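Lecture notes, continued. The same structure-token format from the folding unit now serves as the input rather than the output. Read the line below as a description of shape only.
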């Protein structure tokens, strides 16, 4: 298998990016599986970042038809409003467990990637950020696209697997492995490893030497996921 263990002494100029941890993702809305666990782990990562003085930034999906009209084939309700993340609804609010502290910026977006907001990349660059520690939902959608675009911006990504989620845990695990197969310059890590790194304690994580090292099937998804 063409991947290897990398000893990370300390993330270079890190920031934490929290993606779409909004009220509508809970059981009464889009129903991310194990959402409370995702929130708990993300909250721990946020607390670790704040304790070490690392920036915490937020991406938030807000679909506002008054500023961006319907896209081709975009689904709407019977009343013509967005099917999720509609502007000025309670569901778009960031969950209290992971709410921004004073001064922590929220970058609203109307596409999957947080970098579709043109102000995010300049914000990170202006603060010398080199590493993004990423938590959020949905793993295969907004998280995956944000990770890809972060790599395109020259950022190293540490993706916190147990602080992310999707519609089912199986969907999430497959998405993590698909991201890991092309996670150039970064690693998939756990909440515990994220906290260790934020506190300045080194740890080992798997990193790519060659594309697509994880050739998985349903029978071994869990085994490979747990190895990351």
């Amino acid at each position: 298998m063409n991947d290897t263990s990398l000893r990370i002494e300390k993330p270079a100029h890190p920031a934490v990016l929290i993606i779409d941890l909004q009220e509508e993702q809970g059981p009464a809305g889009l129903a991310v599986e194990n959402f409370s666990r995702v929130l708990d782990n993300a909250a721990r990562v946020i607390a670790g970042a704040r304790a070490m003085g690392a920036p915490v930034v937020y991406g938030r999906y807000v679909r506002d038809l008054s500023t961006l009209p319907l896209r081709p084939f975009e689904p709407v309700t019977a009343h013509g409003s967005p099917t999720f993340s509609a502007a000025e609804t309670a569901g778009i609010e960031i969950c209290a467990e992971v709410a921004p502290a004073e001064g922590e910026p929220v970058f609203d977006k109307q596409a999957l990637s947080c970098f579709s907001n043109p102000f995010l990349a300049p914000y990170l660059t202006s603060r010398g950020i080199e590493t993004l520690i990423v938590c959020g939902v949905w793993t295969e959608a907004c998280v995956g696209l944000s990770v890809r675009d972060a790599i395109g911006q020259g950022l190293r990504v540490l993706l916190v697997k147990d602080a992310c989620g999707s519609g089912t845990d199986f969907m999430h695990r497959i998405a993590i492995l698909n991201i890991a197969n092309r996670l150039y310059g970064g690693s998939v890590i756990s909440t515990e490893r994220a906290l260790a790194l934020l506190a300045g304690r080194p740890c080992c994580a798997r990193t790519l030497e060659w594309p697509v090292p994880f050739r998985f099937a349903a029978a071994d998804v869990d085994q490979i996921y747990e190895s990351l």
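Point for the exam: Residues 3-227 form a domain with the Rossmann fold fold (CATH 3.40.50.850).
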